[in-house]
Amino acid sequence: MFRLVGLDLDGTLLNDNHEISNENKVIIDNLKELGVKVVLASGREIESMIWASNELKLDTPLIALNGAIVTDNKGENVLFGKSLNLKKIKDLFIDLYDSGRFMLIFFKDEVIATDNNDEYYNIFTKYSNVIPRRVNNVVKYLDDNNLWNSVYKIIFSDEEEVLIKLRDDLSGKIDEEYTLAFSMPFYLELYDSNVSKGKALEYVANMYGIRNDEIMAIGDGENDLSMIEFAKIGIAMDNAPDFIKERANYVTSSNIENGVFHAIKKFIYNE
Question: What are residue 174's phi and psi, to 5 degrees?
Fold first, then answer.
């Protein structure tokens, strides 16, 4: 019997209008009645997850920023937090900034953006409940406020082909302390390698005394792979990249076809 289900948001639980379908809401309500813990795990910041937790009436912790932060269901108390050691790669960051890369920089309670691209800034605001503060000189802002070791995640946003090339380039310049992973085709994320959705899901499971073989996880992105592989049953959405599907135990239907609903029906209700 599964006692915990880990769910990604964008591309998984949410449809393309960033909404939770009635089918998904009903099946999650049914899980709660069975005593199954439903845990949201996202690359989003906490403030952009609370609405979903409230809408589903969950009382479980929130896993945010790819597992860099775990809070209570209200986002008020931090249960776990691990920031990115950005100061160690400060020179590389400055080079990226000087090259004109559009970046979003995530702190515990704030998101800032480079002030150099309206298109990708507006795309982010469609996915987030948070409006990032546009900063004219990000390097100066980090210096002046002594924030180099207070960053939890950085997003580089661009066309997928450009980001693939950027990932390949950066992979040769950073060590194993850092992870580069796609959450969406236009989001390449940089965060600490000691955090992941899988490790955060394990942290939450241990809080409840839940074993690995009692966990199911569902996701669609590269940043979901750790929890898909950690869970007893890891499920990929049909809209996930092929390499995610290949490493999952099962592929459900897409996020616009209520894939979460169908996966839960199959593995928990045997229907």
Answer: -120, 160
Distance CA 138, CA 177 (A): 23
Q: What is the pTM of this model?
A: 0.91
Cβ count near 64 (within 10 Å): 30
Segment 82-86 shows an average pLDDT of 94
pLDDT, tens digit, 9 for 90 and up, residues 15-33: 999 999 999 999 999 999 9
Phi, psi of 224, deg, nearest 5: -90, -10
Please check whether residue 18 is in contact with residue 52, taking contact to mean a CB–CB distance below 8 angstroms.
Answer: no
Q: Which domains can be identified in the chain, with CATH numbers? A: 4-81+195-267 (3.40.50.1000), 86-192 (3.30.1240.10)
Residues 200-240 have pLDDT tens digits of: 999 999 999 999 999 999 999 999 999 999 999 999 999 99
Distance of alpha carbon 39 from alpha carbon 201, whole angstroms? 8
Q: Which residue has the tokens 């691990």?
A: 82
Helices 259-267 and 22-34: crossing angle in degrees, nearest 10, is 30
- DSSP 8-state symbol, 54: H
